Amino acid sequence: MNVNRSPGPWAPCAPRRPVTNPAMSYETLPDRVLDRRELRDLVDALAAVPSRWEDQVDFPAGEGRHYASLHRDAYVDVWLLCWRPGDDTGWHDHDVSSGAVRVVAGRLREYNPRIGGEHLETVIPAGQSFSFGPDHIHRLTGAAAGSVSIHAYSPPLWRLGQYSIGEGGVMRRVSVGYADELRPLDAAGGPERTAPAGRPPVPSSG
Ligand SMILES: [Fe+2]
User: Per residue in 18-53, pLDDT tens?
Assistant: First the structure.
């Protein structure tokens, strides 16, 4: 199937894996859903060509994280996100999509929920990338001023699941559209830690 792949974006790379194909571009992508390895290759390749996305970098005064669509076709969509410290997606999944994230400036902090214990916390600095499947639930926050990341999803995002974790660790999911800005649904705002049974949740320090 021939899809309309416009000349486009590029992205980030990283320590979880080196760039394997810096020449990759939208034009050379297969006409099918991409797996997480291919998505990671894509964001890593895009990161190697800043001229294809750096004009979208912006930190508008008085606003939250800035995001710009770099590319979208039948099989993949790619976004550039600009983060301030404290910018927070809240807990979410990507419905049926796999994804990959490359940090090109600053650093992000990823949390993965752990029921009955402390959430996993990973800092992803500039130059690193990671990928995930549709089973992945996470929360991303800006961890440094001027942070920039490139995100690719396949199939393209259409719906996402957004979660709250209430007092006592009860997790609830609501389906939202991909154009809706992800934000924390937890009453406390910032990443919570799920407390052991019988204890109240303890807000994270960062
Ligand atoms: Fe995400």
Answer: 344 555 678 889 999 999 999 999 999 999 999 999
- C-alpha of residue 138 to centroid of ligand 1, in Å: 6
Q: Which residues of 66-82 are buried (b: 16+ CB within 10 A; e: fewer)?
A: bbeebbbbbbbbbbbbb
Q: What is the pLDDT of residues 62-101, one digit of tens each?
A: 777 899 999 999 999 999 999 999 899 999 999 999 999 9
Q: For the whole model, what pTM was predicted?
A: 0.80
Closest alpha carbon to 134 in 161, 113, 116, 111? 161
Q: Tell me if 34 sits within 8 A of 75, measured CB to CB.
A: yes
Pairing type for strands 98-105 and 129-132 reads antiparallel
* CA 140/CA 52 separation, integer angstroms: 24
Query: How remote is the CA of residue 7 from the centroid of ligand 1, in Å?
Result: 25
How far, in Å, from the CA of 149 to the mean position of ligand 1? 12
Ligand 1 centroid–CA 85 distance in Å is 17
The 3-state DSSP class for residue 47 equals helix
